[in-house]
Batch of 4 targets.
Target 1
Amino acid sequence: MAKRKSSSKSSDQGMRHLAEAEKALNRADKLQRENQAQLNKLVAEQRAERALREEMDNLPPEVILRARELDKKKKFHRAVAKRVPRDVARDTLHLECGHTHSVFHPDSGNEPRRCSECLDRWLLRESRKLKKKKGAA
Ligand SMILES: [Zn+2]
């Protein structure tokens, strides 16, 4: 009788260990899936970044020429909405468009300045429009 009791007890313990091992395995599985998802996301981000860089390196010349004309008329210049000291040498300019620029504070005033982000967005937009038009023609 006593022998049976002890064997049933050790079998309970074995089941408990098995359940714990299964839980640990599930946790490891979940972690691995999460890591994989994070890795996939990083790879997708890098691919998108590379595609964007390639696009910016291969802008149609006519789009670049139009951007130059507009730039002469200061169409990509934005007013400074706020200037925030960043460290001893630099300030962060918050432009009216929402983009920010880091500048050396002694040699920069608060006059409107070209926003390279707005310019890049314009270049991309116009380049895509042109490619679409050429593709459709
Ligand atoms: Zn901007």
Target 2
Amino acid sequence: MCAEDAGDLVCIACPRSCLLRVDPKDPSAVLGAGCERGLEYIESETTSAGRVFTGIVRVEGGARPVAPVRSTTTVPRAELLGVARRLATVSVAAPVAFGDIVFTDPCLGIEFRATGDAPAAAGVNEGRSA
Ligand code: SF4
């Protein structure tokens, strides 16, 4: 049996994972928070919730077919599916290096950085001078 109700939130600001609940007798009070960050967390979750978006992009000519990426800021939850659809259309040329900005979402202006390398496939850049 799950102890959580639909109105409960688990704070993810630290590993303690406090179960937060708005006091039914006083909607302005939050129960279960182990510290002030929990109050900030439930405030942000109930007003402007967002998530850091992690995914992959296709890499053309790479030793690996994809590179991992993550958004540099949080993406509003209502926009997550749209971002996923747009990111699925992205294809970049190898090489991709950790930290490269590989995509800027055209609707939200949020940048996505590579979180891993995707070197060029052997032979792709051979014969070219730097
Ligand atoms: S309320 Fe504070 S102690 Fe509890 S999980 Fe959040 S940050 Fe950690």
Target 3
Amino acid sequence: MQRVIKARGVTKTFEEGAAAVRALDGVDLDVHRGEMVLLMGPSGSGKTTLLSIMGCILRPTSGSVEIAGREVTRLEERELPRVRLGQIGFVFQGFNLFPTLTAGENVELSLDLKGVRGGEARRRAQALLEQVGLAEKYDAYPANLSGGQKQRVAIARALAGDPEIILADEPTAALDSQSGRAVIALLRELAHARGRAVVLVTHDSRVLEYGDRIVHMEDGKIRPPTDFSRAESSVFSLVQPNLAQDCSMEEQAAWGKGLQS
Ligand SMILES: Nc1ncnc2c1ncn2[C@@H]1O[C@H](COP(=O)(O)OP(=O)(O)OP(=O)(O)O)[C@@H](O)[C@H]1O
Ligand SMILES: [Mg+2]
């Protein structure tokens, strides 16, 4: 599988007055096309910080991040927006939709940032809403959409630049379980059927079975994979056997191809 994110030795220290907070402490991570990685861990363990650094929103204190083979940590500040716009789609917990714009206009706005305007923007926004199952909601205002629908508009918007990478920070936190599952299934389809790399931060144990891989963070570090030969009562020992059984990489690749054809 083709690697699209390569993070090596990433650290991030926030200066808080006199004190310093080490949010990330030597993180190595690879993410590939066609996979959905779940990033989990306790509050404050560094998940959002890592996501922001992989998304070129935040710079690491040290270490390197390559996006599609290009080391973005070496780029100048002014070059980063182009990487963000062209290669990365963000989905946040709070939807971040503009309340005075319709669903369609919210998506059009992202296209506008990418230089797509007028009738072409309208046509593409419609197609993106269709992709997330909201073809009928182009003219609906966010206030008249359910939480799950709003989150799907946010995903349509993240897809506006046709990004290779989708980074989602707790997109199901505000959703009931059915809408949450629909959103996760959609993200998973984007990975499997459309070859996107998806990194999903979640606390939500209901979505564990949808991931290809779980990366567990603790104190700014990635915790080594659990040794399943020892019967531990962690969530991993409950979930991982299912993952291995239900969704081998090969099976998932085949499943993705099936959807594509
Ligand atoms: N801008 C900032 N300034 C100072 N400290 C920060 C900043 N952002 C994050 N931190 C600190 O860095 C650590 C990691 O924060 P981060 O937001 O990455 O955690 P998280 O795993 O996403 O937590 P949560 O599950 O609560 O969202 C925390 O100790 C946090 O207080
Ligand atoms: Mg967070």
Target 4
Amino acid sequence: MATFRTKGLSAVTALLAFSIEAGAVTPTLPPTAPRPTASPRQPAEITRPPRPEPRPDTGPREETASEASKAPSPEPRPDPGTSSARETGDTPRSKTPPVATEELACRSRLRARGVEFTEHAPVSDPTGCSVPHPLTVRSLGPGVELSPAAVLNCATAEAAAKLTAEVIAPAAKSILGSELVAIGNSSAYVCRPRNGTTKLSEHAFGNALDIGSFSLADGRSIAVTATSAPKDADFLARVRMTACGPFKTVLGPGTDADHAQHFHLDLAHRRSGATYCR
Ligand SMILES: [Zn+2]
């Protein structure tokens, strides 16, 4: 029966060998016995499938790397929010890019404006809140304290400082007759969604500043609210109107209940630079 053990033989050859041997030695051999030769090739074909599936994971990594190389955008600013948004929230930038040239230039411009600030540790939260290069801002220009100090990204601090120098301080003097000495910070960086939604607020990116009041050298404090005092109302209206443009979102008393006591100013980016001022 050694014939049947020859693996290389085809079924035909095997059967032939069997019939010869069967006839010579054991005519009573059951026909089922010789089966073993049953096509040794098939198993080989079936076993063939084990092809080298193990994919190298270099592919995905390369993609990540190329994305990361795009990341060093100058501004750690969030993506566009919906235009219907009250306070535009958006997707986070979770990565922490190195301090970019534009970031450093922004800080230089702040110093040139006399803005007092210190670097704040990067902010990052699993929920998506993120400020890669936050600053703790203590003043928005010479003699204009920001109280309490606010954690903001540089772009927002710069926009606020510019508005202060070009609009708020001059309006305080011309309309209210006194020097602006402080701006009341009602809220800056806060890791939270927009009120009534699950989308993150611009505050969650250090991209927004809420102003609750303006303090003057003569001791007055002008609260941001629906006021009937004509000069106060004029001053507040001037600030609010001119903030729209430099800031992309401007909300305040009259917008809704959430903004009855402060101006919300943020730099949310929308398509074609659209503003949302209500
Ligand atoms: Zn706000």
